[in-house]
Amino acid sequence: xxxxxxxxxxxxxxYCLVCRLLLQDFDGGLGGCFVYIFREIxxxxxxxxxxxxxxxxxxxxxxxxxxxxxxxxxxxxxxLERTTSVAVQEVEKYLKFVIxxxxxxxxxxxxxxxxxxxxxxxxxxxxxxxLMSGIASLDPFPDREEFYxxxxxxxxxxxxxxxxxxxxxxxxxxELPEMNYNESLGAINQDELWWETAVSHEFWIIRxxxxxxxxGAVNNNLLCCLKPLCLLRSEVCEFLLPIxxxxxxxxxxxxxxxxxxxxxxxxxxxxxxxxxxxxQSGQESSSICHNKDxxxxxxxxxxxxxxQPRNQHGRSxxxxxxxxYWLDINYLHIAKAALSCSAHFSTVFYxxxxxxxxxxxxxEALKKSSSLSEVVSQSFTQDSQVDSLSSVSGEVTLNxxxxxxxxxxxxxxPDGVYGCGAGRLPDPVSRIRMYEHEGQxxxxxxxxxxxxxxxxxxxxxxxxxxxxxxxxxLLDSYLENYPNPKSGAIRNLIFKSAIKVGKWDLxxxxxxxxxxxxxxxxxxxxxxxxQFSIVSTALxxxxxxxxxxxxxxxxxxxxxxxxxxxxxQCIYQIDQAVRAITGQESKPLEDMLTKWTQERPSFNEFExxxxxxxxxxxxxxxxxxxxxxxxxxxxxxxxxxxxxAIQNRRYLVAEGVVSxxxxxEASDFQMQVDKxxxxxxxxxxxxxxxxxxxxxxxxxxxxxxxxESNLEAAKLYPRVLSMYGNWAAExxxxxxxxxxxxxxxxxxxxLESLEEKGDTILDAYLSLARFADGQYQHIVNYMKSxxxxxxxxxxxxxxxxxxxxxxxxMDNLEKDRYxxxxxxxxxxxxxxxxxxxxxxWRCLKQAVQNYIKCLKHGxxxxxxxxxxxxxxxxxxxxxxxxGLIMINMDNIKSYKFLSLMYQLCAxxxxxxxxxxxxxxxxxxxxxxxxxxxxxxxHTLFCIFALVNxxxxxxxxxxxxxxxxxxxxxxxxxxxxxxxxIEAAKKLITQLKSDKQIGGIVKNxxxxxxxxxxxxxxxxxxxxxxxxxxxxxxxxxITQLKEMDNVAVPTDEIPIDPTGEYKSVVTLxxxxxTFKLAGGINLPKILTCLGSDGRRRRQLVKGRDDLRQxxxxxxxxxxxxxxxxxxxxxxxRNLMVKQYKVIPLSQCSxxxxxxxxxxxxxxxxxxxxxxxxxxxxxxxxxxxxARACRDKMVETVRASLNDKLKNFxxxxxxxxxxxxxxxLEKFSQPSVWFERRLAYTRSVSTTSIVGxxxxxxxxxxxxxxIDTNSAELVHIDLGIAFEQGRILPTPETVPFRLTRDIIDGxxxxxxxxxxxxxxxxxxDVMHNNQEALLTILEVLLYDPLNNWTISPQKxxxxxxxxxxxxxxxxxxxxxxxxxxxxDAVNASVQQESQESVNKLAERVLxxxxxxxxxxxxxxxxSVAGQVNNLIQEARDxxxxxxxxxxxxPYI
Length: 1450
Fold this sequence. Notes:
Radius of gyration: 40 Å
Distance between the termini: 61 Å
Low-confidence stretches: 163-176, 960-973, 1363-1391
Number of helices: 66
Mean pLDDT: 84
Structural class: mainly alpha
Shape: globular
């Protein structure tokens, strides 16, 4: 820095000499160039002074910056004084600019203050009369003593000039020179004005903005008046430049547009050239195109233009896509510029605009060559569009894939890099990025090493990879013999490595400036030698370095801030230690050590946590006071770092830390065991199981010997035993009985004897419960197998044979060899069967007992309530199981049963099966009653749905037409459901008499009746009405007001474990009008008024069984719980978006209206007017969706080849457009990126969940998109569990992944985010298949859940959609169609429970096969299964066979 300033001062001295020679000839006018030379000198000197103001050494009067400023001020004073005597009007023009620029300089140093005052005195006091007009226009001076004389002069002049007015801007405007058209174009068409210059950013932006303002190209007169402001502040110019460019372009002048396009394109092209040159030579350019402030300014110009609507020409309307082309520019160059400014979201955004433009160009070229259909056919199997795209222009080659790869890497998106070639392409850059992203540092080191032969500059990257790899000693040995670098990345690595290995004898320069790692190393070295003042100085340098990086960092993405924040945390650790030692802290050193032991860094990623722990360890190592407490703290830090490294699969780092930990002398017995345990966990985690087992047995043996005499050993023994037991269970290392009795049961027994609390014993209970449950399930599955059935048949035959021989009265049977063999074998078989039954019962009881203990003693494993209830319901004859639950029920928090309330209520019965244990119903009634009292808002609707099962027909008996259908339907199931209804009514009667919730029950009963009446109210006369309809006064719902104890039904009420529910929003009433939604039965949209003042829309549906939808929402809720528990899916925020569904009876219910959503079909092709859909707006040249559907109908009965050919022809003339949804709704690149990411993740999650659950009927009206978050919401979930396969036109795809759905994911398509999120979702479902199957088992065997669909109902439903769209067809449904649906519902209800159970068993088996990765009998890995599903969903051979109403071309 000093060398640069020295050079600048030398140049200034020569400049002063030349200027003073020119001053001598000012009288002669310098050959007509006098004014230009004066202005040049003036600006040059003022900007030089402003540049020096930014130097840190400006306040040092002996420093170069101060000296340069003094020289410049002296020359400026001479020039102004000479010019005042020659041409005072020129000085008057720039007086305000000079004064405003020099006022801040007075605060920097006394010497500079005096120099500035000298200039002011010469101008304002000595030349007061000559410069009166300029002085009058000056801004007020600061209220400081040194300015008082000048303020007095200004006030005197203002009084002499008279009062000022607001008309002065007009005069300024009139002073602007008028230019003709050619002069105007020439004024802004100068390369040195835009990009071919090497001046400072402030000078460039002021000159450029001023040139545009004075060119005459600006149309807005108000903008023209702002030139004086632009001359004063560069910030004003930065703000105005985008507005000025827009103003010029808005005139629609082709020549001006061409000039601006050329100049801005050249700016970005030159930036790309310079960036390419820098990457090859490593030299920094001084060009304005490489100045980050200038690049950001030009990026703001492009971004501002994009947000302005373009002027329409002719009849064709313009869209948001057209707004990208105010200028003819290459967006890939802009993406490159954004990347250099750390604007990573903008990089992705502009790169995708470029890719989409290339796609449009390719399509136009293909149309001319008549090969578009061929390309469309290939597009169904093309995973990503970016693999082969690149831009070559102006000797610059840019690969869009490389740009996107780097942008996604910097953003920190865990999946985006895979969409840009990482993991697929063989080139070293893509592979290295993938290795670094996945933490495969050993592979990255090898690849860097190979590349070192060709690119020597990769040496730094190789050394950084070695550092991340964990080979710190190898790195240190390499760097130790490295030629001493004065600066740069190698020097930083030397100090970073020295900190990690604890090397404090490096030779350090005593310079005032150094890198962050060098400053930290210096602070630790001086701390070691108790030089605390130098420590503080070094920390200040490190802090300044971090804050400088923080100041220059881009605010667009937080990811780039994490390393800086981690560095600041490292500084804070050292600072804490210094203050603790020097007594600046009120607490002693021991308190700080305790805080470090308990406090954990808040970062989630290992690369940011490791430096903090490393710094702590270094501090503890160099502390001048080495006590036992310091050693204990160091060992605990090493243990913590080991655990973090293992969790993040950084096994080499963990091994290095374990090695260091073993070298420390253990402070106590627990620490000694912890060391060995962590070492065993490390070996187990990386697959060295034999070593882990041997080490763990060694620990157990040691603990077993000492547990009698050592309390710590007694406490640690069950924990290690549990760990080994879990490993044994996981790998089937030993006999199951040994595992259960010697490890898991023993662990629980020991922990209970120690009265252990918390997660340790909960995990022990769960381990035992799961293992016992697994053994029970194994026995049950065997008893259901064909092998067991064959064995039973043989036993039966043997018994018959023995009986036959006995009946024949054969002599000496006991001596008959055949008889004795047969008898003995029968006895053996029977004893095996009895032993199996005993094992089954023992394992069942053990599993139930420990699941109950899990739920009793904590909340960590609440999801196990599903398995407990499943075991209970699948063994209804065992009174002991019901007894266990009854005994422990009071100790299990009631809210844990809420997730299963529908299924629990469905099992209530006054006439239970004969083989059911009587205690089951008693236990069930008690659980539901207890839960209803504690949580009435969640429970009562479930009970009322059963109470009101036949309420629809009762309320509609006055209507003869309805009576015949509804009454008939209800009668078919009366015999089966009457017992359940009666049980529910008895429970409601009991709850009404409860003092705590009696009022809530009565009001909720009234509310349910009102909803059911409204749901079945005939509104067929309003079927075409789109305006609000007044509620009929006969409807009970009009009379409901101020129900202060009833919550708004469709609100999602957070569960309060205490049961107090103090902040529940209650029902205040309903608005007097409603609207109709499209559908077969014309559901009503009602507005509910809450006690919080908010209005909530609700959808009231009649003659539609919503229990299936409610149960599917219940499944989604459980899946979301699993996703939240898994770190990979939680990090990605993967979830299924839910909405509230409340069944009121068998035929009616209320749904939460999904606010801010619209069907993707409505966005893409409109509702009734197709011209309002995105397809017609963005691609008016394509055929209509109606025409596409008509063409598909033509080949419904054709062969597969004809269908495929027809489908591909349709697709070639109907291109996807969903990507424009994000451009329309979210114009900011950061918001656009986040919303599109949320959309892609939502599609992936719902696709895999839909596949596992067999969700069908996913047409474009059944999928909503949230216009705020861009997440998908799936509605109408009535076809599930593969029932779509039995439709008249079977569904042939696993989920909806059509071209429009993929188009919304961007140019990476199904690669990257979508595929990886699918894999993570599938992985969670595979790993939790036990919990999932348990949940679904309870639901599928639910006696009230009619999830099956008959062929008649399937045909009726599909025929109703045989029009342009679902909504219209349902609104036009005929009366006979509705009768058919009702009849079909009745036929479904007539199915016996036995047949439903058989179907449920079959569905569960199919689900299990899916969760095990089987596809058509072949087992795949998670990645293989996902890949197969994506291919199936996109295969045009599958899509062309779908029902035309599904609209697979959209």
